[in-house]
Amino acid sequence: MQGSTIAPDVTDKWALVVGISNFQDRKLRLLFTRNDAESFVELLKDPRYGRFRPDHVRLLEDEQATTVQVRAGLNWLARMAGPEDLAVIYISTHGSGRELD
Questions:
Q1: How would residue 30 be classed by pLDDT, with cut points 50, 70 and 90?
Q2: What is the pTM assigned to this prediction?
């Protein structure tokens, strides 16, 4: 069919979700970012909408979301997701440069 897009078959679905609201700098207390990440995880796992298997979704929040843990999560995603799989990375936090943190 000309002009239409057909979605490829997806074998499996994986997600790494990061939500950071609390920072060492007390001025950076975000109200919604961690809750947004938690809500996104719920949507992914919902059997009517996202239909991700619960063990295929990793959530890192606040103190868990260190550089080491985020890299480990990305590594997990790269190892687990196959060529026909869908891999989702969702990060909810602020957006300043490292030199400002």
A1: confident
A2: 0.84
